[in-house]
Write a structure and sequence with these properties.
wza like fold; 5-stranded mixed β-sheet; 10 strands; 37% helix; 24% strand
Amino acid sequence: MDLHKNSVPGFAFSSFVPLLVRALWCALAFGLAACAGRPSGDAALDSRPGAAGLNAAVGTQDYLIGPQDLLKIEVFGIEALNRSVRVNSTGKIGLPLIGMVQAGGLTSEQLAADIAARLTKDFLQDPQVIIFIEEYTSQRVTVVGAVKKPGVYPVKGRTTLLQVVAGAEGPTSIANIGSVKILRPQADGTRSVMSFDLKAIRDGRIRDPEIRGEDVVQVDNSVVKDSVKQAFEFILPFWVIGSLL
């Protein structure tokens, strides 16, 4: 009776645990095969109107200046006119010779052209004006999904995708870093979708795209990593119990 009492439970768990592990791995293999047999999320997104292809170029040429942004203004050959100025709450900046100028709602190129035209009118001949945006204080970026600290973050100066993800304390252990998406608002109220390989960016194989204010950075879970994590979390208690018997 004692032998039967001690051997039956041990036999049941020692036989059950390997079978459970095999069943879970088979289920995982079938799941991966099913994922491979259908189009990826990126392929579906890229087919939408207005969506850009994988690793599409992202620039800041059409960024609109806003209140509290810090601008660096340079007039070639005239150092006395070079300065850094912050846009006030009404979207204006004050400059020597020409006074208050509307900057809010303009791109840096448009503002440079306006300042050059004002200087040409009364003071200079063909001035070359260049504007750098040192701080994008009025802008925010939202980071969601499989990052350690999702949230809304300010965009200050030139900010890239890698910097934004790092600011959210990096991707989680189950993140799909091979397809990190930037959702960018459009004039018609929709959002364009661009997908980037974060690992390729970190390895220096593709360039790190710039982030604009009001962008949403979305880091999805990896189906494979998530499935493996759940499988191990499920079988671990059985494995521990079986090893103790």
